[in-house]
């Protein structure tokens, strides 16, 4: 089955700096890669996603890149703000089967 | 995107009792899932709730412990039966529509 690894497990950045979270996957058949943000006491919220026919996708301050050859994808958050502090999960998917990373706890220091 | 609500949002239950969690979606969806998230951990799929048929359980989860109902395309329930402290977790409902969206979760504490 699919195996998704996520790094780092914790990340602290100064407000205004960039944050990068990386994930690798093992199954070359995976073709959809969403990222979720989970704030304390809430369910995971889909913030951005990318499909395997695209190398990069951007939405305001967040972007995701995908390297199919190397089987890794990354989340980039620029100009971080305190409200970006949360746990972020990556996932790799094939159809309706989703495999989640172990999460990254991001803290943005004001 | 689908809007998902869950009831209750949290509960504290005694060992040996059962709790039924409800999940309501604002639109008809074919696929609904139930996940467990233990404190500080990732998401573990419990089962896929199938409308009109029995749920499909993942390895390590059984119907006697986690019975699931799916009476229609907008509603599902998960029961956590004969609870023990190890069942203390967040239980999340999600839908595949075709992206995956999650409900707010039910925070269960078993004493």
Task: Tell me what you see in this structure.
The complex is a heterodimer of chains A (110) and B (111). Chain A is mostly beta strands. Chain A has no helices and eleven strands. In chain A, the strands form two sheets. In chain A, strands 2, 4, 5, 9, 10 and 11 form a six-stranded mixed β-sheet that branches. Chain A has a five-stranded antiparallel β-sheet with strand order 1-3-8-7-6, with no helix packed on it. In chain A, a hairpin with a 2-residue loop joins strand 9 and strand 10. Chain B is globular. Chain B starts with a strand and ends with a strand. With 111 residues, chain B is an all-beta fold. In chain B, a hairpin with a 2-residue loop joins strand 7 and strand 8 (75-80). The chains are: A mainly beta (110), B mainly beta (111). The A-B interface holds A 34, 36, 41-46, 49, 89, 91, 93, 96, 98, 100-103 and B 1, 4, 31, 41-43, 45, 48, 92, 96, 99-105, 107.
Label this structure with key terms:
heterodimer, A: 110 residues, mainly beta, 11 strands, B: 111 residues, seven-stranded mixed sheet, four-stranded antiparallel sheet
Tell me the layout of helices and strands.
The complex is a heterodimer of chains A (110) and B (111).
Chain A: E1 5-7, E2 10-14, E3 19-24, E4 32-38, E5 45-51, E6 56-59, E7 62-67, E8 72-77, E9 86-94, E10 97-100, E11 104-109
Parallel strand pairs in A: 2-11
Antiparallel strand pairs in A: 1-3, 3-8, 4-5, 4-9, 6-7, 7-8, 9-10, 9-11
Chain B: E1 4-7, E2 10-13, E3 19-25, E4 31-37, E5 44-49, E6 56-57, E7 68-72, E8 75-80, E9 89-96, E10 100-102, E11 106-110
Parallel strand pairs in B: 2-11
Antiparallel strand pairs in B: 1-3, 3-8, 4-5, 4-9, 5-6, 7-8, 9-10, 9-11
